[in-house]
UniProtKB/TrEMBL annotation:
NCBIfam families per record: L29
Alphabetical list of InterPro entries matching this protein: Ribosomal_protein_uL29, Ribosomal_uL29, Ribosomal_uL29_CS, Ribosomal_uL29_sf
CDD domains: Ribosomal_L29_HIP
Pfam family, one: Ribosomal_L29
Family annotation (PROSITE patterns): RIBOSOMAL_L29 (PS00579)
Residue runs in coiled coils: none
Encoding gene, per UniProt annotation: rpmC
UniProt keyword list: Ribonucleoprotein, Ribosomal protein
GO MF terms held by the record: structural constituent of ribosome
Gene Ontology biological-process annotations: translation
Protein name per Swiss-Prot or TrEMBL: Large ribosomal subunit protein uL29
Keyword Ligase: no
Length: 88
């Protein structure tokens, strides 16, 4: 069983655009900060969540690096014009 968030598995992250990955990374870093703060003040209930969020961040960085190196294709954002052309 993989450790991490259910919605941030590698398959779903690869379907996201670069901008969406950056947004997810920001959210994950903010969550990690809040969890660390809770741990420092003794309010954290689930220490396993820290590990899961750290792995989510690593997974996002890995996919971004794969795209940078050309290992996996970059997902292009779907524009309205392209969607109209495909429908025609």
């Amino acid at each position: 069983m993989a450790i991490g968030s259910k919605d941030l598995d590698a398959g779903s992250l690869r379907k996201k655009t670069d901008a969406e990955l950056v947004e997810e990374l920001g959210k994950a870093k903010e969550t990690l900060f809040n969890l660390r703060f809770q741990a420092a003040t003794g309010q954290l209930e689930s220490h396993g969540r820290l590990k899961a969020v750290r792995r989510d961040i690593a997974r996002i960085y890995t996919i971004m690096r794969e795209r940078e190196l050309g290992i996996t294709p970059v997902v292009e954002p779907a524009s309205d014009d392209a969607a109209k052309e495909d429908a025609a």
